[in-house]
Write a structure and sequence with these properties.
The complex is a heterodimer. By secondary structure, chain A is of the alpha+beta class. Chain A has eleven helices and 14 strands. Chain A has three domains: about 5-50, 2-Layer Sandwich (Uridine Diphospho-n-acetylenolpyruvylglucosamine Reductase, domain 2), CATH 3.30.43; about 60-170, 2-Layer Sandwich (Uridine Diphospho-n-acetylenolpyruvylglucosamine Reductase, domain 3), CATH 3.30.465.10; about 175-285, Enolase-like, domain 1 (2-Layer Sandwich), CATH 3.30.390. Chain A has helices at about 10-20, 35-40, 75-80, 85-90, 90-95, 100-105, 110-115, 125-130, 225-235, 240-255, 265-285, and strands at about 5, 25-30, 50, 60-65, 65-70, 135-140, 140-145, 150-155, 155, 165-170, 175-185, 195-205, 210-215, 225. Chain A has a five-stranded antiparallel β-sheet. Chain A has a four-stranded antiparallel β-sheet with strand order 11-12-13-14, with helices on both faces. In chain A, helix 2 links the parallel strand 2 (about 25-30) and strand 3. Chain B folds into three domains: about 35-115 and about 170-245, Aldehyde oxidase/xanthine dehydrogenase, molybdopterin binding domain (Aldehyde Oxidoreductase, domain 4); about 260-400 and about 555-695, Aldehyde oxidase/xanthine dehydrogenase, molybdopterin binding domain (Aldehyde Oxidoreductase, domain 4, 2-Layer Sandwich), CATH 3.30.365; about 405-545, Aldehyde oxidase/xanthine dehydrogenase, molybdopterin binding domain (Aldehyde Oxidoreductase, domain 4, 2-Layer Sandwich), CATH 3.30.365.10. Chain B has 18 helices and 28 strands. In chain B, strand 13 (about 260-270) and strand 14 form a beta hairpin. Chain B is flat, with a radius of gyration of 28 Å. The chains are: A alpha+beta, B alpha+beta. The interface of A and B includes residues 1 and 274 of A. The structure holds flavin-adenine dinucleotide. Flavin-adenine dinucleotide binds near residues 99, 100, 108 and 116 of chain A. Flavin-adenine dinucleotide binds near residues 72, 111 and 113 of chain A.
Chain lengths: ~290, ~700
């Protein structure tokens, strides 16, 4: 690995200072489970590595006014085990719990998973389903970016080099919002997804779908939402035929490639089958679970 | 072999505490804190070819030599030399830090003249980059098929597999005098590394000391002195300081050996009642720039046999034996084809095997395994399983040699204070050899498992200053070292008995040592405790050397395994639910480590069946998955319930067990998947997309 300088700002303010000062020459470090590997492989060569401090708001994990605030440094392990997340955002808890291994989850953060912007980042489809808002702050300004507008391509996002992701905000949608997540990988542990599917559906008292989210990972240059599929569900009382149609629309939204983890054809088929499986679980046999 | 209090018990590894607490120093770990002679140790690194085939027009190390911290630089190839695979060594450096060494490598200028290459086995075969066929015939060869009522034929494929030992390859070298060198090496063959290095450096073998007390596995890829050892020695001599040269995981993947792939077209002919008549196999495979892709003959009884093999040359690193070299591939082919035959005949596959199995022991093992997996209750014919999640059963056979032989010189010392020291220059490659050496001594001396675990008992291995011993390959270590250590212990005990005999006034040949006492077998109450006996010694210690004795070992093991799998027919994911592994290894020395060998073999077999495989990009000639993220190994969650059944057959003597348990696993899993699905995946690894292709759900 190349030589670099290391900074450890104490709090948010100092972090913003450092980020502003170093700009493109600097890189933030959270758990380091992506950054260090990227540096070892020469894919990133920052002159300065700035460690995100373990202070608020980076470590926040709480609910205020119907909004769950998750600091960027909250780890996958915390998301997996936090009673708040397990109860209110089970889909995120499950997705976080399928990242890497126990050791990785003790280090890996939600902020790192988001900013790395891998098409296969496991929490990303869950966050898409949850309408997560990303708080991007730099010296003197703060903006909120909805997660579905954040990703531009593999490793590419709308974040500017001096912008720091401080927290992720997730509106609590209540009990009528049913979610499911499925990570498809050949190894049941410590493996990168071939396909990730997350769904979320609101049903009203009559059993009709009021709103729906279908998000896919590892089947396009970024994690994506299958909007046509979502639209097709809205206002409908779900049936097997409808779910089949919706799953086909989700498939249409994907543009998988062939790589060492799986062929494009296989991924394409899996988007259809897993979307169908999760929607069926959520809408037709409500007792079943989408977790394998 | 007579029963003892120790042999056949469950003895925890003598070095387990050292390993789990991190006290054990592997080659990777050694430095001046473990050996003061390593003060000032430098880090070595090797520059490797980035191209699969090229002529080296120019190699210029002058810039690297001037880099900070760099203490030695060496070109390993001359200008004009031709490199044959990506990963071939070109130059080496030693520097004060690992980072400096890596930086220096990138400052070495290499001008390549790219040459045509081929890394794809099939394309190389078509291009004629292949040997002439090697043919073996028995009976009437392929003509024998005219006696068959039923014939099946299919082609099976297995990928190149990499050894992936937990500890990557490497050596640490220190010159302790102008012509004296000490080498820590992660190796399976201490003495052969010593002798090879002595030859390379023009030193008498006694001037080279090789140490490997603990090692993180080799699986056959550390069975000879590898290139980095003399490189480290030369760098060290040049720099005048110790050098640690451990390879990276990527280097391990590219340049330390691999298990050849295989494409086998198999035909089996049988009578209507299932009696095998004829077997033919045409195979090819690549051992990269080396050869060695040939496969062993089937273990079943075939009156007529025809084997034809062609080695294909590709621009990839040379092959090396990997745990039961080529046997798992062969078993996958043969046992898959047998199940295809059973389906065609409408016969139970276990019955079909028993009918055609020449081994009496394995015929018994088939029965035991079938019973343990619940074959009678659970097995249903191919194609009769329905639903999204389908379970299936399958089985496969193994066979191995595992005999030992002379060449070990062990020493057993008994001290007046009762303590015992055992010494032998063997190596423990992770199989538990150190504990086997201890057990052999305890058996020979009549001591107890408690004594073995006490601090009165010490075993030293892993150093060429100790008595010579052979390499650890072919599952021969246990059967080679046990008799030598036993012999030394037996002789040492005989000497101790002389003093006891005098004291008790009983002829020495009437004395028995057992359970920590030496006593008169005609009057067991007349005797001395071990401690009382050793206090009779007139000197501080007595010491005896022992050598391999005939009559204590055997050779030739059978074995079979049964697998139960569950396949998700929507995603193609295969989960192994259970494996029953029935094996024999003559006299079981340590039940605990013997079972652990079986568990390890099954785990590696599952990995081979479902996950592993080298991927080469035929356009660039480079390996795509030369890391443990993309070259997948089975992890703890892939390991199912493994029911190990070990037959203890003391009358056959000690026989090795390290390799056979990997042989039948992939075959059993492939057969179980085919049983669950009613269609067969004939290519390993059985990945989800291949499962769906077989089901006709994804286009080929
Ligand atoms: C063995 C292993 C297994 C893995 N398995 C999985 C898996 O199964 N699924 C999966 O999705 N990922 C996996 N990963 C990838 C990785 O663990 C995750 O992406 C993780 O969430 C990254 O978080 P981190 O805190 O380690 O990020 P870091 O490596 O610290 O940072 C990642 C990137 O985010 C930037 N960054 C971090 N924090 C901030 C911030 N607050 N503001 C702005 N930029 C920031 C960094 O500059 C860097 O570019 C694995 C990694 C390893 C090593």
């Amino acid at each position: 690995m190349h030589s670099f300088d290391y900074r450890a700002p104490k709090d948010l303010e100092e972090t913003l200072e450092e980020a502003a000062h170093w700009g493109e020459k600097g890189r933030l470090l959270a758990g380091g489970t992506d950054l260090i590997l990227f540096m070892e492989r020469g894919r990133l060569r920052p002159e300065v590595v700035i460690e995100v401090p373990r202070t608020e708001p980076f470590t926040t994990l709480e609910e205020t006014n119907g909004m769950i605030r998750i600091g960027a440094r909250v780890t996958m392990g915390q998301l997996e085990h936090s009673p708040l997340i397990r109860e209110k955002l089970p889909v995120l808890s499950q997705a976080a719990g399928e990242v890497g291994s126990v050791q990785i989850r003790n280090l890996a953060t939600i902020g790192g998973n988001i900013v790395t912007a891998s098409p296969a980042g496991d929490t990303l489809p869950a966050l898409l389903v949850l309408d997560a808002q990303l708080m991007l702050q730099k010296k003197g300004s703060l903006r909120t970016v909805p997660i579905d507008q954040f990703f531009l391509g593999p490793g590419q996002t709308v974040r500017e080099p001096d912008e720091v992701l401080t927290e992720v905000r997730v509106p609590v949608k209540g009990d009528r919002f049913v979610t499911q997540f499925y990570k498809l990988a050949v190894r049941s542990y410590m493996d990168i997804a071939i396909v990730d599917v997350a769904i979320g559906v609101y049903t009203n008292g009559d059993g009709a779908v009021e709103d729906a989210r279908i998000a896919l990972g590892s089947v396009a240059p970024t994690p994506i939402r299958a909007r046509e599929a979502e639209e097709r569900l809205k206002g409908q009382v779900p049936t097997e035929t409808l779910i089949d149609e919706v799953a086909l629309l989700a498939q249409k939204a994907s543009s998988p490639i062939t790589d060492q983890r799986g062929s494009a054809e296989y991924r394409w088929l899996m988007v259809y089958r897993l979307t169908k499986r999760l929607l069926t679980n959520a809408l037709l046999n409500s007792s079943a679970s989408g977790h394998r | 072999m007579a029963a003892t209090q120790v042999r056949g018990q469950r003895i925890p590894r003598l070095d387990a505490p050292a390993k789990v607490t991190g006290r054990a120093k592997y080659t990777y770990d050694v430095d001046q804190t473990s050996d003061p002679r390593l003060k000032g140790m430098l880090y070595g690194a090797i520059l490797r070819s980035r191209l699969p085939r090229a002529r080296i027009r120019r190699i210029d190390t002058s810039k690297a030599e001037k880099m900070p911290g760099v203490r030695a630089v060496m070109s390993l190839v001359g200008e004009g030399a031709e490199v044959q695979y990506a990963g071939e060594a070109l130059a080496a450096v030693a520097a004060e830090t690992w980072e400096q060494a890596k930086d220096a490598l990138s400052a070495i200028e290499v001008e390549y003249e790219p040459l045509p290459f081929e890394v794809d086995t099939d394309r190389a075969y078509e291009k004629g980059l292949r040997s002439s066929p090697r043919v073996e015939r028995r009976g009437r060869g392929e003509d024998g098929f005219d006696e068959a009522d039923v014939v099946v034929e299919a082609t099976y494929r297995t990928p190149v597999q990499i050894h992936t030992p937990l500890e990557t390859h490497g050596s640490v070298v220190v010159w302790t005098g102008p012509s004296q060198v000490v080498v820590y090496d992660s190796t399976q063959v201490l003495f052969s590394v010593r002798d090879s290095l002595a030859r390379e450096l023009n030193l008498p073998p006694e001037n080279v000391q090789v140490i490997c007390e603990y090692m993180g596995g080799g699986f056959g890829s550390k069975l000879w002195m590898q290139h980095y050892t003399p490189i480290a020695a030369r760098l060290s001599r040049k720099a005048g300081a110790p050098v640690k040269l451990m390879l990276s995981r990527e280097e391990d993947f590219l340049a330390t050996g691999n298990n050849p792939d295989a494409v086998q077209t198999i035909r089996i002919g049988a009578k209507k009642d299932g009696t095998f008549v004829a077997f033919s196999r045409r195979s090819y495979g690549t051992g990269g720039v080396g050869g060695g892709a040939d496969l062993p003959a089937p273990v079943y009884r075939f009156p007529h046999l025809y084997l034809e093999h062609v080695d294909v040359t590709t621009n990839a690193g040379p092959a090396a034996p990997l745990r039961a070299p080529k046997w798992p591939q062969a078993a996958f082919g043969v046992d898959s084809a047998i199940d295809e035959l059973a389906a065609k005949l409408g016969m139970d596959p276990v019955e079909l095997r028993i009918k055609n199995d020449p081994s009496e022991i394995r015929r018994k093992e088939w029965q035991i395994g079938a019973e343990r997996i619940g074959w009678k209750e659970k097995w249903r014919p191919w194609g009769s399983h329905k639903g999204v999640l389908r379970r299936g059963l399958g089985c496969g056979a193994s066979a191995w040699g595992g005999g030992g032989g002379p060449g070990s010189v062990a020493e057993v010392e008994i001290f007046r204070d009762g303590s015992v020291v055992v010494r032998l220059g063997t190596q423990d490659i992770g199989t538990g050899t150190k504990t086997v050496v201890g057990i052999a001594a305890a058996d020979g001396l009549g001591l107890t498992p408690e004594f073995l675990r006490s601090d009165q008992f010490r075993v030293y291995i892993g150093d060429t200053r100790l008595g010579r011993s052979g390499g650890s390959g072919g599952s021969t270590t246990a059967a080679s070292v046990y008799p030598a250590v036993y012999d030394a212990a037996d002789k040492a005990l005989a000497r101790l008995k002389e003093f006891v005999a005098k004291k008790l006034g009983v002829p020495a040949d009437r004395l028995v040592s057992q359970g920590g006492r030496i006593f008169d077998k005609q009057n067991p109450t007349k005797g001395l405790t071990w401690g009382e006996a050793t206090r009779l010694l007139p000197t501080e210690a007595i010491s005896q050397r022992g050598e391999w004795r005939p009559g204590m070992t055997g050779s030739g093991v059978a074995g079979c395994q049964f697998a139960e799998v569950e396949v998700d027919t929507e995603t193609g994911i295969v989960r192994v639910v259970k494996v029953v592994a029935v094996h024999d290894c003559g006299a079981v020395i340590n039940r605990l480590t013997a079972e652990s060998q079986v568990i390890g073999g099954v785990t590696q077999g599952i990995s081979f069946a479902l996950l592993e495989g080298r991927l080469m990009d035929w356009q660039t000639g480079l390996m795509i998955n030369a890391d443990l993220e993309n070259y997948k190994l089975a992890g703890a969650f892939e390991v199912p319930e493994i029911d190990v059944v070990l037959l203890d057959m003391p009358e056959r003597g000690v026989i090795g067990l390290g390799e056979p348990p990997i042989i039948p696993t992939a075959a059993a899993i492939a057969n179980a998947v085919a049983n669950a699905l009613g269609v067969r995946v004939r290519e390993l690894p059985i990945t989800p997309d291949k499962v769906l292709k077989a089901l006709g759900k994804v286009p080929s």
